[in-house]
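Here we describe the complex-level prediction in full. Unlike the single-chain runs in Section 2.1, the two entities below were treated as one system.
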Amino acid sequence: MKISFTINGTQQTVEVVDGNTPLLWVVRDVLDLKGTKFGCGKAACGACTLHVDGEAVRSCSYAVKFAEGKTITTIEGLGTKENPHPVQQAWIDEVVPQCGYCQPGFMMATAALLDKNPNPTDEDIDNNIINVCRCGTYYRMRKAIHKAAELHALQEDSEIQNS
Amino acid sequence: MAEKKKISRRKFLVRGGLGTAGVLAVGAYVFRNPIRRGILEMANTMEMAYMGETKNPMVWFEILKDNTVLLHSPKVEMGQGSFTSFAQMAADELEIPMAMLKVVHAATSTGNIDGMSTGGSTSVPGLWQPLRELAATMREMIRTEAATKLGVTTDAIAMGGGVVSANDKSMTYAEVAEGVTEWPDIETPVLKPVSEYKFVGKPIPRIDLEDKVYGAPLFGMDAEMEDMVYGAVVRPEKIGAKFLNADTQQAESMPGVIKVVKEDDFVGVVAATYQQAENAKNAIIVTWEAPNNLQQEDLEKIMTVGNGKTTIIQKEGGALDDDDSEIMEFRSPIGAHAQIEPNGVLASVEGDMATVKISTQVVGITRKEVAERLGFEEEKVNVIPTYLGGGFGRRLHTPHAVQAAVLSKAVGKPVKYFFSRKEEFQHDMFRPPTHHVMKGKLNTSGSLEGLEHHFVSGDVGNNSALVPSFAPTILGADVGAIRGGFIQYTGVPNYRSVYWHVQLPFATSWWRSLGLLANTFAIESFIDHMAHKADKNAAEFRLENIANDPLSVRLKATISAAVEKANYTETIVNGRAMGLAASIDAATPCAQVAEVSIENNQIKVHKVTVALDPGLAVNPDQVKAQCEGCVIMGISASLHEEMYVENGELRPIIYGPYDMALMKHSPKEIDVVLLQGKDTPGAVGEPPLGPIGAAVANAIFRLTGQRLTKLPLKLS
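The structure predicted for the assembly as a whole is:
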């Protein structure tokens, strides 16, 4: 079957044998976007988190057929070195990653949280950022999330002034 | 202490035209007998030297045409940050900016691989001397060559920023290297004093930071080759199940299936996509011979001090009499690695050549095992290591590389294959469960008269390809299980540590910090108990029982630093209590103070203060990152994680039920103090995992009067 969606700003149509194929494998193996990771295949770790219509989704357990007509963003589309997303900038400022494997999932979860809640409290972070990091970077991540919220606010201010 | 490591035999290999034209490659023979030295150093000092191999010339550095200097790292990057430290060390001696230096994993085809492994917190300490010597020698080779090209004496050459200059003329390093086929033979120069380094000792951001933040395809799981297909291998659920037979009829005709491969020891399938390979795998009906139906109670009975083979690893003075000693027992559970990137591999066998891309901590062993199975010369197998999505010791075993190579050979295409999460949990090489009996006796003035640690563990180092099979016989104890098991209170007149080894029916092996986590939990909880019995401050009690040899003095300094920085008190303040613990691992002392409260009958760790003495911190920010990571991984292992055996199966099989620390369980404050008790870099990646379990348990004792003696810690 054919499924069409927008991913990182580009319209894509993919041909899949089985519409129940997890979106993760279409993103990684068909579209060759390797930033979204496989961790557990059961939506239990969050390494595969990406955005579908702005919502954080664990793509290992999201059938590709449900992506029809949707807008998808992966870590590759969140920001670039030239124009980093505030979350990515904060992650760089706080030197968060260690092995780095789980980090795209955390950054995508954080970006989705900040969209809904631009200034999360520690409790909001605890309740919403529930991915698993084995290297134990949570301490720096928390600092980076608060930093990202500040950068996000600054960015919005300058956008308002420029418009 | 063993003799300090030296580059024993040096023969530089310098060639133009390696790989690309205009390249300068520098290599060296470094070491003679890696295995023997490795064992001795592990046994004597717990500090391992770099163990390069001697068979081939090794390429360390290349200068590319764009003036990039490539360092082919013999150690792998698994998050510990050593690539960044290597870059700092090399850039300082090469007189180049950090941005000019790129670190890549050495593949076995370039020869520069570590004969042992990446592990044991040895990467930076082990390469500290050889890497800087190589870089300095290369710098002088460039200087000499530049002098010839510019027609001046070497004294007239100035170097900086990746450029050589004399009078008004200048050349990049790449221009100097251009066209050179014979390089001058240079004596290794005297290294710069650390005080003159621009990068070493500074908190330089990780060199892999941007790649990791923008989602670059760095990992084994991201590797691809043209025409690649997917493999899967059937694994048993039961412990110790032996493969007998497989009915593959249904799988063979399933969509996408290219071939079902039956070997004597496993059955696998190759298909066009990952899902098709998994579906076909699940349709294969295997007959297993499952020898036992082990239950958790059976396991705890087996894992009891007094069972198995015993070795006294430390003894001073006489033994305590049980009748007038304090005795306390402790237990730790089976631990899983649970690294987020599953074990996986991409293998391609074409004719008599094999290429393997893999997240591995044992590049050389992976190559050897693949070559043996295929019947190839080792030189015909090129293992290309990738960045690791977590290592923690799990990737010291790579039999899946052998299986992928067999599958690839069977279908004539590159085959990628990786574990499901259930396979990860049931086929981990677990941290063995342990049982400890601590004994202690106070004299009339409330000082320790005797202290004993009796403990039992399964394999850690034994039965690993890293430790030769003769080693357990020579050394007695398992070199991994005893880490952290020694009594560090050697000011006590009578002390001993007695190790018992039990062979478990499932595989256990290296888990970050090895025996340290469980051993320190037992010893440091018990010391706290004895301090309480003596009615003494737990910090002062520790200090008065530690001896005055150099390492002990450094241990005392970390305890004092942690106590001071945390404002350690044994009074409960605002519902929070503090607990202290300290350990020495791989010659790096560490002390921690945990600030803990109980909320909704759950243990809550608010703040951890860490004092670590790693010697010279090449990158203080990354040393701190390792401390933070160890504290959080240690909280996860000490308060949350537990594998168990049920009806002959290891469980649980997924994150969640395998309860791990999440963001909400992480302390909001981790305050790290770095001491520098020696002038060379020491171990960093594991030592801070020692104290945390006991530090939290000791705080809980202050809060509740409950002495928790079992990991994971649970309030009754």
